[in-house]
Design a protein that fits this description.
CATH superfamily of the largest domain: Transferase(Phosphotransferase) domain 1
Radius of gyration: 18 Å
Largest sheet: none
Helix content: 40-55%
CATH class of the largest domain: Mainly Alpha
Mean pLDDT: 80
Distance between the termini: 33 Å
Number of strands: 0
Number of helices: 8
Order of helices and strands: HHHHHHHH
Length: 142
């Protein structure tokens, strides 16, 4: 969407600085959610940049909303893979009138077998993630 990395950096520390520049300084709770072993909390206080300022003005709002839902510090707040596919960002791919550049119809991208859905849900239930997105996917997919 940008034509370049959102968080460029030559090292892990450089990338973390770039992430903080966009997402803002993580709270103590967010740091513990990312890594319960990390006890220190020494980051400069930086306010987040609105996603609308990170992306070009012509970027669709549903694309910005989808990326914003994925790029959060707390892993529990990120949508699960199957729940992500329910996002409005993918509505065009579900539209039977959408065509490939050569005029052919899209393959059926969202026709998951019950086995794949069950396997995915069992993996994430095992991690006991209970975000709003997870509950929606669980109720729809089971």
């Amino acid at each position: 969407m940008l034509g370049r990395p959102i968080f460029p950096g030559e090292s892990g520390v450089d990338q973390l600085v770039e992430i903080i520049k966009v997402l803002g300084t993580p709270s103590k709770e967010q740091i513990l959610a990312m890594n319960p072993e990390y006890k220190e909390y020494k980051f400069p206080s930086i306010k987040p940049i609105p996603w609308e300022k990170v992306y070009r003005s012509k970027t669709p709002k549903d694309a910005i909303g989808f990326v914003a839902s994925l790029l959060v510090y707390d892993p529990v707040r990120r949508p699960r893979p199957l729940a992500s596919l329910l996002d409005t960002y993918f509505d065009e791919l579900r539209d039977p009138n959408t065509r490939l550049p050569n005029g052919m119809p899209l393959p059926d991208l969202f026709n998951f077998t019950l086995g794949k859905i069950t396997m995915c849900l069992n993996i994430y239930r095992g991690k006991q993630r209970q975000s709003r997105h997870c509950r929606i996917a669980d109720s729809i997919m089971v």
